[in-house]
Specification:
This protein has about 170 residues and is α/β, with parallel strands linked by helices. The chain has helices spanning about 30-35, 40-45, 55-60, 90-100, 110-120; strands at about 5-10, 15, 50, 70-75, 85-90, 105-110, 125-130, 140, 150-160, 165-170. Strands 5-4-3-6-1-7-10-9 form an eight-stranded mixed sheet. A two-stranded antiparallel sheet has the order 2-8. The protein starts with a strand and ends with a strand.
Length: about 170
């Protein structure tokens, strides 16, 4: 059975990116946080990713740090293509492809519209959210508007640099 996970940072005021879609504001936490958030262990267990087109293109610009993991991209842009990815405009189509491929652990990478589409489709099993001690004052929210969902808090930890890690299980 496939397990869908979230692992994402947001500002204290709920934004995952600034108004231009940039995440450079996270860089100031790298040295303080180190791997206290368990990223190395987390990514080791991930065998596929789901992202939106804009997030996919942004990550490609960083030099694709995810190795040979399968990658699925949600987009509404007709004719969008990319090497070594499965492209779809619907989260249900990607979920079906993931099921056929037999992936064990799929990271819903983002952005906010992708996070919401996956949540509304019932894909998330767990969410790990890092709340960074910064107020951006605007930007792209963690979740785009959508349906109401009940989540259960499973863990909470204070990390170096004033970062909070909050883990939730999806009850839907």
């Amino acid at each position: 059975m496939t397990r869908y996970v979230g692992y994402i940072a947001m500002s204290l005021d709920g934004f995952i990116a600034d108004a231009e879609g940039g995440v450079g504001w996270l860089d100031r936490f790298d040295e303080k946080l180190g791997d206290a958030g368990g990223y190395a262990e987390f990514i080791e267990g991930v065998d596929a990713l789901v992202s939106g087109r804009k997030t996919h293109e942004q990550v490609l610009g960083w030099g694709w740090p995810y190795g040979e993991r399968a990658n699925y991209v949600l987009t509404r842009q007709p004719g969008y293509t990319a090497d070594h990815v499965t492209i779809s405009g619907e989260v249900e189509t990607i979920a079906a492809e993931i099921g056929k491929a037999g992936h064990k652990c799929v990271w819903i990478v983002g952005g906010g519209e992708t996070q919401r589409a996956a949540l509304d489709a019932g894909m998330f099993d767990t969410l790990r959210i890092f709340i960074m001690p910064i107020l951006l004052g605007g930007g792209l929210p963690l979740f785009a508007p959508g349906n109401e969902h009940d989540l259960t808090l499973t863990a909470c930890a204070e990390l170096p640099g004033g970062v909070l890690q909050i883990d939730y299980a999806n009850e839907d």
